[in-house]
Amino acid sequence: MKKVIWLIGLGVVLTAFTVGLWLYLPREVDVSLEGVKYRLGTENAQEIEPVTVQIEGTLRRTLNGQRLFRGMLELNGEPLPVPKEQLTNRTFNARKGEGFLLVYQWFEEGTIGKSFSLGTLYADDHFRQITLTLFEQQADGKSANWSGEDGLMITAPAKDRTEALRVANTLMANVLLQPLDS
């Protein structure tokens, strides 16, 4: 009887250890997704263009529920005012169900520091589906807020606006008060 209890206990410990490793070991992320860039609002339904999103890095979870992504996100066709070397090996964090706030900070000679806020990235656990709420840039170079009424978005994979909105609503379900509509 003691042997059976010991074997069951050993099985529980090994299972817990295996699950812990599976959940908390870093996972490689290397995806290239075809999607669309579009503006919300029915009056902007025709404003849509194709975009390719490339994401490389590692994703890991912490014991307190944070998801940490370290790597780079590149939007083909979207110029970013960030030095190329600052786009790689950036660390972004998010709680489960929330998005990664993509803020780039760097120093240039003669300045105290510069910053650029791209937007908020929502992704599934394997980065196979993503949606990005883009902060629009004002004339002075500062970023403005994003609006669920007429904000810019990038969603991938998606071939059209309807598919993009379906993916975006799924990924952002925990933060939206009401679904995004066309």
How would you describe this protein?
With 182 residues, this protein is of the alpha+beta class. It has helices spanning 2-24, 161-171, and strands spanning 27-39, 48-61, 66-76, 90-95, 100-106, 114-123, 130-134, 152-156. Strands 4-3-2-1-8-7-6-5 form an eight-stranded antiparallel sheet. The radius of gyration is 20 Å and the shape is globular. The model has no long low-confidence stretch (mean pLDDT 83).
Summary keywords:
single chain, alpha+beta, 19% helix
Topology:
Blueprint: H1 2-24, E1 27-39, E2 48-61, E3 66-76, E4 90-95, E5 100-106, E6 114-123, E7 130-134, E8 152-156, H2 161-171
Antiparallel strand pairs: 1-2, 1-8, 2-3, 3-4, 5-6, 6-7, 7-8
Can you summarize this structure?
The protein has 182 residues and is of the alpha+beta class. The chain has helices spanning 2-24, 161-171, and strands spanning 27-39, 48-61, 66-76, 90-95, 100-106, 114-123, 130-134, 152-156.
Strand order of the largest sheet: 4-3-2-1-8-7-6-5
Poorly predicted runs: none
SSE topology string: HEEEEEEEEH
Could you tell me the number of beta strands? 8
What kind of sheet is the major sheet?
Answer: 8 strands, antiparallel
